[in-house]
Amino acid sequence: MGSPTSEKIDLRYGVVVPHLGAWRLARGISQAKLARYARLSRETVRAAELGRPIRRTHVAVLARVIGTTYQRLVESKP
Fold first, then answer.
1. Which CATH number applies to 9-75: 1.10.510.10, 2.40.37.20, 1.25.40.340, 1.10.260.40?
2. With the CA atoms of 43, 49, 51 and 53 taken in that order, what torsion angle do they form, in degrees rounded to the nearest 10?
């Protein structure tokens, strides 16, 4: 996991994943498929792609489904 100083954290809600859409597109999957594979709602995926913070546990699941690390998903582009 990234260090607390490197993550974009909203202490009330979670972590911002600024490049989730780019990661998803690089893997060639739709929002609906990503949500289904991660067992999250499509709205959660959509919210994350719009820059809204999501739970750390959701970020970890998305990273696993996308095939990268939590830290890379949060901190870099694909």
1. 1.10.260.40
2. 50
For residue range 25-77, list pLDDT tens digits in order. Answer: 999 999 999 999 999 999 999 999 999 999 999 999 999 999 999 999 999 99
Torsion of CA 22, 6, 14, 18, to 10 degrees: -20
Residue where the block lists tokens 């970890």: 60
Confidence (pTM): 0.84
Q: Which residues contact 36 (CB under 8 A, 6 or more apart)?
A: none
